[in-house]
Amino acid sequence: MIKRLTFKQFLFIFPLLAILAVFSIFPIASSFVYTTFNYQPTNPQYSRLFLRDSFNSGGFHQDGFFINFFLGDELFVVSTDEGAAEIVAIQEYISNFISLFENEDIRSISSTEAAEVRAFIDELHSRLTAFYAMHRGAEFTREDDVFTLVESMRRRFIEPNFVGLANYRNLMQDSRFWSALRITLVFTGISVFFELALGMVLALIMNKAIRGIGAIRTVALIPWAIPTAVAALMWSYLYDGSSGIVAHIFSEIGLIESPQTMLLTAAGAMASAILADVWKTTPYMALLLLAGLQTIDHGLYESASIDGSGRVKTFIKITLPLMKSSILVALLFRMLDAFRVYDLIIVLTGGGPGGATETLSIMSHHFMFGRFDFGYGSTIVVAMFLCVAAIAFFFVKVLGAEIFKNE
């Protein structure tokens, strides 16, 4: 029978819920929002989330200020009083209009106000064109700068960068995304398979009541205790084509043609990443399986031994069925972790060669922090989230992995 949560009990877990809301739920919700915008922090036109037409008032005012400053330089070049008077008149025209936008940043703008700004820019362009045409003989030095700033004024209008589901549509048509998804699935499937098999063997060994088992368990967990980035850097030295001992051993026994193929070919780089990941996380898998092994009643093994059951038959008929939940939970945790792999591959191969080991995490990082395209990068992250959710749903609902039990 499941008891209801009392108010006092809720107060105890409220801090945890608040932390989850701030550090888990909010980032996920923000990612979903970013996917509906063309959000690029380094691009002034798309540095915010705009749902309606906007205007960079501060930049517009700055452009007008510098036009007046450059026209002041032209006063020393113009040779007639009429020309000087025209420059002063243009400067006053600019100053009077841009004063309406002083000390303002990006803001929304109505269609009427936008029409007035565009009319001002067109009038300013016409007056400047006529002025320079009438004094073509003068040696002006700021003409190109002035017209460049006028065009900059036109670009101060910011259209809405809300794109709806366009990023998702582009993602479905992106061959790079499907390649990264395939690479991620291959890496996850192969590495988790070997980790499960080797982890089971290691767990069976660590479950034996033999002398020195404590030392064996401690030594077996050392690879898992090493930080992933450090382990990846260590393996990169072992795979080095010129001095890496692992690369030379594989070459000598005929697994590879030459030591250089370990990290410089697509197949070699993927195999290298999988081998390093299996070495690093097999102890973690063994630890999870060992917890399941220790819940099995040893009396069952004694009964099987009396009945004449061999070790293989006992393992298949007793150990595996009783460890179903433990195996499924171990697979679930490890698959979710492997699917989101980033640090191991980014240190070991950088996603290369030629994108052969570019996983979804590396691809999303490239778009978000390489191209600063947070909209499309967030779409990749959301796609990863949906894939992880699908994996979790499959294990929990379809295979029946019991992560939490009600006692």
Range of helix content: 55-70%
CATH class of the largest domain: Mainly Alpha
Number of discrete domains: 3
Derived from helix and strand composition plus strand pairing, the structural class reads: mainly alpha
Strand content: under 5%
Report the order of strands and helices: HEHHEHHEHHHHHHHHHHHHHH
What's the count of strands?
A: 3
Structural commentary:
The structure is a single chain. With 407 residues, the chain is an all-alpha fold. The chain folds into 3 domains: 7-47; 54-158, no CATH class; 168-398, Orthogonal Bundle (MetI-like fold), CATH 1.10.3720.10. The chain is 69% helix and 2% strand. It has helices at 7-34, 57-74, 81-98, 111-134, 143-154, 166-172, 175-206, 213-220, 222-225, 228-239, 245-252, 261-264, 266-293, 298-306, 311-322, 324-339, 343-348, 360-370, 374-398, and strands at residues 54-56, 106-108, 157-158. Helix 7 (175-206) runs antiparallel to helix 16 and helix 10 (228-239) packs across helix 13 (266-293). It is elongated. The protein starts with 6 loop residues before the first helix and ends in a 9-residue tail after the last helix. The mean pLDDT is 88.
